[in-house]
């Protein structure tokens, strides 16, 4: 006989505290997920699943714990699980036209959700170049470089999060940085300093 899962009932204070946690960490969790996954849809899925896991474990969370480290670990593990479930992801250019069944080509039109003309085109291109270079990295290298260079975690924290030795963290980080440096060498050095 299988027992079904019955979620606990949360009181208003617990729900308000959880909403405050999402408000505080939501953008950071999404940004980290986006850096790892490389696209908005997967990043939203990873962030949502991360917060669902937090919500399910809400009553067992130690309020004095470093939640940012815990959330990073959850996102990283979810990303790794996502990659294991997907044997290969097919990447397709959004700029390339789509071939119709009739043999003609259709130009893709993708709406821009950003506000206003004040957006700096040069910075947008740099951000796209950096994200493309990150996505091109092997997932093991990408996870290490995101945790270290974007999230600011120490080698020991990364090793604990990924379940690998510190020496492996250092070697993967070195390889990831060398690869990124080669792929982004066309950017001016002063522009690379702006990379988050």
TrEMBL record:
GO terms for molecular function: DNA binding; sigma factor activity. Pfam families: Sigma70_r2, Sigma70_r4_2. InterPro entries: RNA_pol_sigma-70-like, RNA_pol_sigma-70_dom, RNA_pol_sigma70_r2, RNA_pol_sigma70_r4_t2, RNA_pol_sigma_r2, RNA_pol_sigma_r3/r4-like, WH-like_DNA-bd_sf. Residues 129-180 form the RNA polymerase sigma factor 70 region 4 type domain. Transmembrane segments: none annotated. GO terms for biological process: DNA-templated transcription initiation. The keyword Transcription regulation applies. Residues 21-87 form the RNA polymerase sigma-70 region domain. It comes from the Bacteria. Keywords: DNA-binding, Sigma factor, Transcription, Transcription regulation. Belongs to the sigma-70 factor family. ECF subfamily. This is Sigma-70 family RNA polymerase sigma factor. It comes from Candidatus Segetimicrobium genomatis.
